[in-house]
Amino acid sequence: MILQALVRYYEVLARLGRIAQPGWSPVKVSYALELNDAGKAVNVISLKVQDASGKKMRPQELLLPAPVKRTVGIAANFLCDNPSYIFGTDNKGNPARAAECFHAAAELYKRLLGACEEPAAQALMKFFDTWSADQLAALIPDEQRREELLGGANVVFLYRGQYLHENERIRTIWQTYYASSDGEKRACLVTGRQDTTALLHPSIKGIAVAQSSGASLVSFNAPAFCSYGHEQGMNAPTSEYAAFAYGAALNYLIASQRTRVGDTTVLFWAETAEEQYRSIMDFCCAGTIAAGYTAEELQSVVKAICAGQSVEFDKANIDPDMQFYLLGIAPNAARLSVRFFLRNTFGAFLRNVQLHQERLEIVHPAKAPFETIPLWRLLSETVNQNSRDKTPAPNMAGETLRAILNNTPYPATLLNGVELRIRADHEMNRVRAAIIKAYYLKKPHSELPKEVLQVSLNPECNDTPYVLGRLFSVLESIQNAANPGINTTIRDKYFNSASATPAVVFPSLINLAQKHLRKLDGGLKIVLDRQLTELLGKVGQSFPAHLSLPQQGAFQLGYYHQTAVRYTKKEEK
Questions:
Q1: Number of structural domains the chain divides into
Q2: What is the pLDDT of residues 59-74, one digit of tens each?
């Protein structure tokens, strides 16, 4: 299913001219080797360009013959390779292997271009006939520049001001060679057509924390993966065309979007490959605002699509019934793990995201940094922000996103992560309260009544844990009023125990509050005393000995709601 969707996406991109044809792929190149008519190397030209910051130089990306996938063996690429294959030398300390690489490259060019009379091809053949590794020092006298080249940078060929990979005759030779593979033909499991089976699948580059040289989505490289004597790609026959197509589509998606959730790279695309769909989904998942639009405008676009309406966005007609795909990929050594693969209509995905945002809605300060809480902010509340590694748990991040997109219950690991942070730093902020509220709203057979899971304070709610949370907030208010600027409040000392074992803590806190009230006078004392008396009346004659985890969630929501009222009044004043 995943490979089929990616192959279809590649074919749409190819028809639109936005992706390379089979046999070609983008490659990062640092240098060009200039040849004269006699095949002599006359210059090495840097092709590096400045990065987005303007402070560093990076390799330039060129469309070149698709490189082979190398393992431990020696295999030369056509028209672009590293110094081992181009110059027969490198700085890896194995000159014998470098010489073998150069010989393999010479054999490849002889096989493909030996009969070609094109002057550029003849110059390249003469180069491989006359070149020796000891000529490199004369070609590049600067030792530092030479070492930089030998570090493994890719090199292309230049002849009479034209790259050899741009020569039409040489391009035709390569295309013919690529299409005339003589491998075993079988029915492709992806396309269903009889075609040459790919033994090795393409490398996928750009996934965070994975190997920089690329990792495999599909691979068979150990006896345990073989079945009935079928090795490597024969295990699950995928044609060379399908392997190339899904690899090109994946690399295109990764290069053009970088939405990360924890360690998971999230890729999404519409059936028609229109980029506008991705821009809207990127806003919903990561809060990224498309150029030329405001957050309010994008929010109105999302609401219209959720209502089933077609919308004009960035010169495109957005259809809520368009088939849309989401793929979550995480690194796993030299391979990639699929965290999730989801398919639905675009409107259905957005409606699920909107329902998630409605569950998160909770009272917040007027000057809150964001109107709707983005996913990365939810996940950050499960991590200690003072630690060196602020990455949320990988599985939890992927499961949370999948729950949002499928409109299913949130993972318990999300709630547990937030509860651990509350116990550690005794802080109840907007995001943590929103997570608790959303989790129990979506949990089947939730132990918390709907009266607790409200956007703002519900003064009519008589749920004991919720009332106790409100009571704790009032006790904290009394302490702050009696001792302005106090360094350590009852929240710092007693929040965890008050929410878990109220009967042990609250009698002492109420006695302390009575002493604090004696220090006050005027209207403030009357208001606080009235609030304290009212909430004690709701609790009754005794406090519960223990509160379960859901009841602690009700306590925390009651505390947050009551505290939010206090700060809201300050803002209004």
A1: 4
A2: 998 999 988 877 778 8
